[in-house]
Amino acid sequence: MAPAADDSAARLDALAEVSQRLLAHCRAQGASQAEVSCSEDAGLSVNVRMGEVETVESTRDRGLSVTVYFGQRKGSASTADLREASLAATVEQACAIARFTEDDAASGLADAALMARPGPDGRFPEFDGWHPWALEADTAVDLALACEAAGRDGDARIRNSDGASVSTSRSLAVYANSHGFVGVERGAYHSLGCALIAGEGDAMQRDGWYSIALAPGDLESPASIGRRAAQRTLARLDPRPIPTGRYPVLFQAEVARSLIGHLLGAVSGGALYRRASFLLNSVGTTLFPDWFSIHERPFLPRGFQSAAFDAEGVATRESPLVEAGVLRRYVLGSYSARRLGLETTGNAGGVHNLEIAANAGSLDDMVRTMGRGLLVTELMGQGVNAVTGDYSRGAAGFWVEGGEIRHAVDGITIAGNLRQMFADIQAVGDDVDLRSHVRTGSILLGGMTVAGTD
C-alpha cells in the first residue's frame, strides 16, 4: 500500500486559521491580551505478550485552548469542536472566568520584544523531527512479536515475558497570541521495546530494553532489542548481598539523567518562587566540580526537544545552564520570571536538549576506574526532598570489585544529599544515552551511603 500523501502543512495552516478566529473572538470580547494553542495528534500502539497480541490501539485527538487577560486577570477554557459557535462559546467561558479572578501582577503574555521571528519565507526552522511512519497494525504486531521472540528464544532461563510493544505517533501544534505571533510545529515519535523475566519463583528477575527515535529508520532492530533485553535480564540473576557502608556509586547513563532531572526541578521557576527548592539564591555559586558543564542546545537536528520558540512564543537560544561547575541561570517562563523579578529564559514548557560534557571514557573504563563500589542500573521510589535536597532511593545493579563487575545486587537503598552529590561527581562518561532530551553519559560519584542486604 502506498503511503498517504503528507497533508501536514495544509492541516497546520488550517489550525493557524482557527487560532486567528479565536483571537478575533477574544478581541471582540474586550480582552487586553490573549493566547491560543491548537493541536492534532494521531498514533498507533501495539502490545504483545508470550507470542499473543494483547492490545492494538489507534488514537486521534484534537484540542484547542484559549487564555484571555483582562489587565492582570486571567481565564482559560478549551474545546475540541471547531464549529464557529463552539469557538465563540469557548472564548466567552474564558472571559467569564477571567472576570471573577483576582489580579495577579505576574500574569500576562511574555514580552512582545522576546517573541521568536520567522525566516524570510515566513516560517520557523524545523529540526528534522518530522518523519511520520505509515505503520499498519499487522506490521506493528509482526515487529513486536519478532522483538519478543528474539529475547525469549535466546536462553532457556528466559521463562516468561512482560511483553513487547511498538508505538508511533505524530503531532501538529500551533501557538498564537495577540502580539501577532503565530508559531507552528510538527513532530513524530516512535518506539520499540521488550521486557523479559528470567528464573523461577522468588529468584525471578525482570529487565528489558527499548529504542526510541524521531525517524523510524533510527530505531534499533527488533532482534537486537530482544537480545539486549535478554542479556540484561539474565545478568540480574543470582543477586547477592553486600555490606552496608559508604561506597563510590556509578549511575549508568539511563539512570544518570535522573540526577540532572533533580537539578532541573530545583532550578525551575515554580519551585523557586514557591521557595520549595534547596537551590534558592544559587545562581553564580559553584555546585559542581570545575570541569563540569551543562549546555542547552535547542537547535539540534533530530533532538527530542528542539524548537525555535518555547510554549509562550519566546525565542529559544543556546546557553549554558552550568559552566565550569557554576550554576549560570535558572529555568524560567515569563510568569515565574516576573514572580522572581527576573526575565524569562525561554523555557516555558521545559528545557530544549541538554548536553552534559564528558571527561571520561566508556562505562567499562569507568568501572575499572571506580575499582570497588556499586553500579546502579535501576532506581525505585521517589525519596527525594526538593526543599532540603535529601536523597534516598531504592536501587538495583551490580557490585564492582577490583575494577570488574562481580555479581548482581538488588533490594538496596542509596542515600545522600543532592548538593553534596553534585559536588562529589568524579566523572561523566562518553557513553551518552541518546534516548532522551537530557544527553548524559554514566556519572560516577565519589561516595554515597549504601544500605545493603547483609
In angstroms, what separates the terminal alpha carbons? 60 Å
Low-pLDDT windows of residues: none
Write down the secondary-structure element order.
Answer: HEEEHHEEEHEHHEEEHEHEEEHEEE
**CATH homolog superfamily of the largest domain:** PmbA/TldD superfamily
Examine the secondary-structure arrangement and name the CATH architecture of the largest domain: 2-Layer Sandwich
Description:
The chain has helices at residues 8-28, 84-99, 137-152, 222-235, 253-267, 269-273, 334-340, 363-370, 418-423, and strands spanning 33-49, 52-70, 73-79, 158-177, 182-198, 205-213, 245-251, 294-296, 319-323, 326-327, 354-356, 373-380, 390-401, 404-417, 425-428, 438-439, 443-451. By secondary structure, the chain is α+β, with helices and mostly antiparallel strands. The chain folds into 2 domains: 8-234, PmbA/TldD superfamily (PmbA/TldD fold); 245-451, no CATH class. It has a 6-stranded antiparallel β-sheet. It has a 5-stranded mixed beta barrel with strand order 7-12-13-14-17. Residues 131-237 form the Metalloprotease TldD/E central domain.
